[in-house]
Amino acid sequence: MYLLRKRLKNILTQKEDKQLRPDFLVVGMERSGTHWVAALLNNHPDIACFPSLPWRGDTGGNQVGEVHFFNTIAGLYPEYKDKKHTRPFEDFSFKYNKIFADIVPLKDTVSLRDLSERLLRRYSDYCDAQRGDKKIVGESTPAYVFFLDLIDALCPGVKKIASIRDPKDKIVSWHYNLIRKDKKPQGSSITEKFAIDYLNERIIPEYEALLRYNGEVYIVTYEYLHKNTKKAAADMVSFLGFSVGDAVLSHMVSSADFEQQTRRDGGNTARKKGEEDVKSGLRKGIVSDWKNNMDEQLAGKIDKGVAGLRKKVFDKYHVINI
I need a surface site. Which of 139, 218, 249, 321 has the fewest CB within 10 A? Predict the structure, then answer.
């Protein structure tokens, strides 16, 4: 990692006084409430955060999704080229509103340093556009948890926030997300193989990535967000260097709640927490749904498989556990 930092030294040397963005990142974890975190922060008068639901694609609403910037650019560097969770550089040709499409053909014609600088400045401009008139802006992509050192090398000083969820509920959420995407059949149940595979391939590596990292990450649990939403939101705002009064805090919480985030048909219909919608990325918005989807034996295996890592991460980052 030292060689990566040395190679990238001075990439961010600015020729003008314009501040590079983003100011912070929501770096993970997958299926753990990152959209909720983004929505809470985005409803602060000084803070912009994207993607912020409701995101309804071509049916109206927010058209801005996750950018996957750092896990795509990572593949350009030998340190990350063969690692999991990177995305093909060619994705920039047609994904993410095509904001990097014109830079992709330069890959084999300019130096890695020049290519990185162009990409970083385009990403910064895109984040700045999402900032609007607010003071700071953040972007949320859960896979960033695997690239924390790369983020520091490319964007020194950027603040990081992560949300952690009960691994059993993460598995349930991932299962229904695959059904939503037609990658699993409707009505299928969670098998032990599916649960353990996701635990080993995604959940455990997320915790290991946080343990390897030597920098600061503000971590909040999904369960704490449910139980103490106002306090959790206020603490995140404070971490980003801002204050928040009770009126603004109430606005943040109400504007980001499950009902508001699941509105459809021009805002005329919404769901209450616990109501099912298999076609929505926000499925139920509840805690402990694993009890409706797996038996105690499987739940125990999942807890045992990650308990040690969870304790180490919670201790390292002083996570409030409820």
Answer: 321
